[in-house]
Amino acid sequence: MLFRRPTPVLAACLSLLHLSSAQAENTTETTVVTATAETDLNALNTPNYQILYREDFIDSSQTLGDLLQKINGIQIRQISGLGNPASVSVRGSSSKQVQLYIDGQLINDSQFGGFDVNQLPTEQIDSIEISKSQALGTGSTPIGGVIRINTYNPQIDSARMSLATGSFGYREVNITANKRFTNYTLAAGFSHVQSENNYDYLVPQSFTNPSVSAEEKLANNAYGKNTLHLNSEIYIGQHLLRFNMQYTEQRKELANYQNNSPENASEISSDSWRFGYLHNWQSSNVWLEQIEFEAYTQFTDEIYLDQPIGVMNKRSNYQTVKSFTSIKPTLNIGDLTMTPFINVNHQTFESTTVLKGKITPCNGINSCDVTASQLQLNYGSRLEWPITQLALIPYVLISQSQDKNTNSVLNQSGTKHVDKQDYTTQEFGITYQPNKFNAVVDDRFDFSAFLTWSNGVRAPTLFEMFGDRGSFKGNPSLKPEEAETLSLGSTLSYSDVSFTGAVYHQQLVNSIVAIFNSSNVGSYANVSHAELTGLELQANYRVSTDLSLMLQANLIDSNSQSKYTAYNNKRLPGIYHQQYSAGIGYAITEHWQVNLNSNIDNELYFNRANVFNSVGNDTENPANRFTTDLQLGWKKGRYTSLLAINNLFDDEYQDLANRPAQGRNIQFKIAIKEI
């Protein structure tokens, strides 16, 4: 069994929903206050901003990463197997240059800069917002973009259960329920997912015969996760109060990819609690539209067990506490809308490592246990003012960030380091949207265009500044990465045909790169600059009520400049520079639908030197891939089912870790609404 601790909170929540239903039988529908959208962009899907609603993905058996990689300009690469790390790139960015929000909380980790994009099951998500090369409403401007997950919070009585099974021991169970009362709502969701991840893998040195390579099923690679989500809203006059809670328990076994040892028992597990509060006051004042206050806190306890031969060699504990507070009024002065904001983000991190029963010494060989913290104050304002006569909507966003970073080696005096950084981000954009201002006579025709300029920043992580892994040290003198991005795009639709396109150019300076000398001693340094030029194109055509077609292209040209010859005039690593997609959807009958999508991804480099380690006699790019996914869906009344075959033709390519990726896999999902 992957999980030994029960989650009795779920039973209590479902019981509460059941017991409360009798109280609500005689209630009537009332008009209530609802939280406003993050920005007016929500009314318009452009190449720079897109939103996926629950009905777009709820019946598919996919992770959030699977959904996002279908968005033009977003690339998701991960180590094969459920539960392994995933890298998110927006328009050629690194994963650290992308911001992930759950509701209003910034999830990015200040210690290492990353995030788990698949931490929430899709069944517990209401909508997903994606902003490229710009912030999402307010806040600091990122270099890559923003992904915001809005958790499930329906306004009507509903219930749903879904079951899924698939290749490599995949199992999934989801239960969600919501009850609407006169002045409040209560929603609960529970999800369990597990997988053996025992796909066939070419082991370089077989455990039984180290002199040969052999294809074997991966051992000690299983994954399991339980997730509980609670959400409640209370309406008091012009006030909306929202409370939410998320609990996640997960455990991932760590395979030995070199020899696939059956004795290996290494694993990593974590428990995480997240609590959130939102207060939205809709004012009746002409100039004050609303005031929104948000507060979140998250506790994560992670344990890594190094057990290569079944006996504990090393145990590492990592504890992270994140707190986030934000206040954001919306002011109207004539046609001008002004949204000033103040965000306070505080994170602490502590590590403790025990090696063979003893605390690990910090001696220049082993990693040092530390306690670290970051206090970030971010404030600024967003201005929007429609120009009705010209059908234009310009906006400006300016933010200032002040960071205080501290790091201390545990059990050693005089090791405290303190660093302070200030930086500013800016955006300017203008959208031409004649349909919004009734400047277009033909309702079948829709056209919009946009131009944006942004100056985004990615601050160095605490580990990049203060980290100590023996011969690899942090650099407290690091400067933030900074990028100027100019993007231009448009959307055109007429009747059943639509086209979207965007071109962008980015100049990145102060790239943070790990550098090693001839003695293999390393540190981080700002040693690289880069230029990117990208083109995104997409065409959709609804041939008939039953048949639809889609074509997509994403092209990136990148070049890095560095004082190190090996990194100079090279392509940026970790991203595909050429991507093409084609899709077809066909309604076979009233209840049956089939979708076929093919993707060609080329020209990815694993390192900044653009050097490949050939696999066998293959001298071509080993990450190039041609994958096809097939989905067959059925829906009737409150019942739905889906059969998904991913990587239909079992294409072989290298994954995020430059290892052979998992091949074809099959999943089957059924769901019942209003159980």
Describe the protein's architecture and organization.
This protein is mainly beta and 675 residues long. The protein has helices at residues 8-21, 54-57, 64-68, 462-466; strands spanning 49-53, 74-78, 86-90, 98-102, 105-106, 125-132, 145-151, 158-166, 170-180, 184-195, 200-203, 214-217, 223-236, 239-253, 267-282, 288-306, 314-333, 336-355, 358-359, 370-384, 392-409, 417-432, 445-458, 468-469, 472-473, 481-494, 497-516, 522-542, 547-562, 578-587, 592-602, 625-636, 639-646, 665-673. The longest helix has 14 residues, at 8-21. It starts with 7 loop residues before the first helix and ends with a strand. The model is unreliable at 1-43 and 614-619 (pLDDT under 50).
